[in-house]
Design brief:
mainly alpha, Glutamyl-tRNA Synthetase, domain 3, Glutamyl-tRNA Synthetase, domain 2, 3-stranded antiparallel beta sheet, two-stranded parallel sheet, about 10% strand, elongated
């Protein structure tokens, strides 16, 4: 590539960030970094009616958690500031007026009430090549009438004048050649009555001024492509237009339609990267982070929704993704979201990463559950149980018994096969444990098995009762590793406690 690659993610601050949005960020970021380019975040806040307090902060917090930091943004600065469209308002009118002057756009003076009346009168009403001839705009009014309305500051919008029956084409990096008939597209508003641009005008102007070379967005934006192509042609020339790629949708688990927040609520999994609290309703939406996902796993999982490197490899670090990413391997078809697979990725990363990288998060989760974990012991415990955890939140159940005696004991799992012989075995085991000089799992297991053999009891019949005595239930790592970490006094104390219940 001759020009330096420059890509952008341009979210609207209207709420929490759906995983589809984060994947768009990721593909932008990977492509830019693969070619040594720049990743820009531009906030598209032109629709002030949909603006939500705190949403912009949330977007940047999410990107920071994912490790996808922009090179330029409202927070990071850059040579093309400002990066909020609301702060660029004065720029857009100049381009809208240029389009009107050259006959590619027009002033429309119709009031909201007049347009509502038309919608009631005509089913599926659109402001287009046919209807504009009967409406109040600079194409139907005389020049004097238009001048008078403008001089009187009459409220108006500027609309693109879509040409009739021409083929508008472009080459998509994923889909190949795509074409549209201009007669099927309505005359979109480019500049609103409050002077703010719509997405259609702002995205084209800003991509040009910020020298964007590649524009990646979800396939739901494909219907807007003909408007944007024509705006590029009219304002800056198609040779300056970025290369486009319309990314496949992330689908519901059954493949029927785009994954939504409602689907996540219904099926019990997150669709936002991090917790989001709606400031208007105070409704909380749980995120992947708070559900117990590691950012490395979250990013890895998202990358594999619609892309692979052409091999069987599934576990990739961010650096590996940067090295191997190619738009040629992005799929056209939508990718079904599979929460169990997402948890599998997380489990793999829990095993792969150094414990120190998530030790504080596990300590925080235990603390929130009333357990104050000793730092040195916690590292030992995490190493023991991490293979059993798919989520960081799993560490609470899998490790809390190391720091606190179990509150409930599954006595019902011991009682059916409990007898006096086993009771005597454990009383003898307590005495042997009390005399042991070396307290490690190998010595403990050896002592246990020798004593079982002496009492003519199969070790397998005694292992479950011992596990339940130590942890309260049928879970946890190897039982003698548990005893080693608990220490002599605590192990003996717990065995005595359960024997008392059983007697």
């Amino acid at each position: 590539m001759n020009k330096k690659v420059r890509v952008r993610f341009a979210p609207s601050p209207t709420g929490g960030l759906h995983i589809g949005g984060v994947r768009t960020v990721l593909f932008n970021y990977l492509f830019a970094k693969h070619f040594g380019g720049d990743f820009i975040v531009r906030i598209e806040d032109t629709d002030q009616t949909r603006f939500v307090e705190g949403a912009e902060d949330y977007i940047f917090e999410t990107l920071a958690w994912c490790g996808l930091e922009p090179d330029e943004s409202p927070r990071h600065g850059g040579p093309f500031a400002p990066y909020r469209q609301s702060e660029r308002k004065t720029i857009y009118r100049e381009y809208a007026e240029k389009l009107v002057k050259e006959g590619y756009a027009y002033y429309a003076f119709d009031t909201a009430e007049e347009l509502d009346a038309k919608r009631k009168e005509i089913a599926n009403f659109q402001y287009n090549q046919t209807s504009r001839t009967q409406l109040k705009n600079s194409l139907t009014l005389s020049d004097d009438e238009v001048k008078k309305l403008l001089d009187n500051n009459t409220k108006h919008v500027i609309r693109i004048k879509m040409p009739e029956n021409i083929e508008v084409k472009f080459t998509d990096m994923i889909r190949g050649e795509v074409s549209f008939n201009s007669s099927q597209v309505d005359d979109k508003v480019l500049l609103k009555a409050d002077g703010m641009p719509t997405y259609h005008l702002a995205v084209v102007v800003d991509d040009y001024l910020m020298q964007i070379t590649h524009a990646f967005r979800g396939e739901e934006w494909l219907p807007s492509a003909p408007v944007h192509i024509l705006l590029w042609q009219y304002l800056f020339g198609l040779e300056n237009m970025p290369e486009w790629a319309h990314l496949p949708l992330i689908l519901k688990p059954d493949g029927n339609g785009k994954l939504s927040k409602r689907d996540g609520d219904r099926l019990g999994f997150p669709v936002f990267a991090m917790d989001w609290v709606d400031p208007k309703t105070n409704e909380k939406t749980i995120g992947f982070k708070e559900r117990g996902f590691l950012p490395e796993a979250f990013v890895n999982m998202l990358a594999m929704l619609g892309w692979n490197d052409g091999t069987e490899q599934e576990i990739f670090s961010l650096q590996e993704l940067i090295e191997k990413f190619s738009m040629a391997h992005v799929h056209k078809a939508g990718a079904k979201f599979n929460y169990e697979k997402a948890k599998w990725y997380n489990g793999e990363w829990i095993k792969k990463l150094d414990v120190a990288s998530y030790q504080l998060q596990v300590a925080g989760l235990l603390n929130a559950n009333g357990i104050d974990a000793d730092e040195k012991k916690l590292v030992q415990v995490i190493e023991l149980v991490k293979d059993r955890c798919s989520l960081l939140t799993d560490f609470v159940q899998q490790s809390s018994f190391f720091f606190k005696s179990p509150e409930t004991i599954d006595i019902a799992a011991i009682q059916p096969k409990w007898n006096e012989q086993k009771n005597l075995f454990f009383l003898e085991l307590i005495r042997e444990f009390e005399l042991m000089q070396f307290w490690n799992h190998e010595a403990l297991e050896e002592e246990f098995k020798e004593l079982a053999a002496a009492n003519k009891i199969k070790p397998g019949e005694l292992m479950l009762p011992l596990r339940i005595m130590l942890v309260g239930g049928k879970f946890g790592p190897h039982v003698f590793n548990i005893a080693e970490v608990l220490g002599k006094d605590e192990t003996i104390k717990r065995i005595k406690h359960v024997l008392k219940i059983l007697s």
